[in-house]
Model the fold of this input.
Amino acid sequence: MSGRTAVDRGRDVRLQLLSAAATLVAEIGWNAVSTRTLADRAGVTPGLVHYHFPSLQGLLRDATLGMISDLLSSAEALFENAQTLDAGVDLIFSSFDASTGSETTSLLFTETYLAATRDETLRSELVAIVGEFRQQLARWLAEHGADTSDVTASVLMAAIDGVILHRALNPALTASAVTSLLRRLITPETGARLSMEQ
Done:
């Protein structure tokens, strides 16, 4: 006997479902994921989907938000290792070339952002996760002498998301092509000039 308990098996099934859900959202789109498709991908019976989660929509929320939270947390960890503003900026922008706009991670973000416009629960939870990361980013920028505005951190995040989204249409938007432009958003000189102009 393996010694595995029903709790262990139940946890494994939940993890299988969450992993399959995140993958399917990126592959076929949020609205195309059905209970049967998800169960088939996870290798379980359809009844187990609703046994472990109150609804398919709730499962998709948990799967995508968990993945996004993990990805943003790993980005926060990178900032901890960046000793200078330039080093941190290079870390941020180096992700551009790995993100084509059409790979799994980019599609997961895109599908979740879109679904959040129609699902208030998803939207509020996504706002909290993204907001926490934005605050961490703003604090890190301030600690390293950059523009300390929360708006600046928001615009920087939106610019990064937008560039990655557009890379699916225009692969020429590489890190080297956009880094100098986006770097201006957070340099103290630029921030001071923009404040004076407002």
